[in-house]
Amino acid sequence: MQKIIYLFILVFSLVTTSVFAQKNFMILKLTYGEVEIELYPDKAPNHVKRFKELADSGKYDGVVFHRVIDGFMAQTGDVKFGNSTNSEFNLSLAGTGGSDLPNLKSEFTDIAHTRGILSAARSADPDSANSQFFICFESAPHLDRQYSAFGKVVKGMEFIDMIKKGDPNSGSVPNPDKIISLKSK
Question: What is the pLDDT of residues 89-98, one digit of tens each?
Answer without folding.
Answer: 999 999 999 9
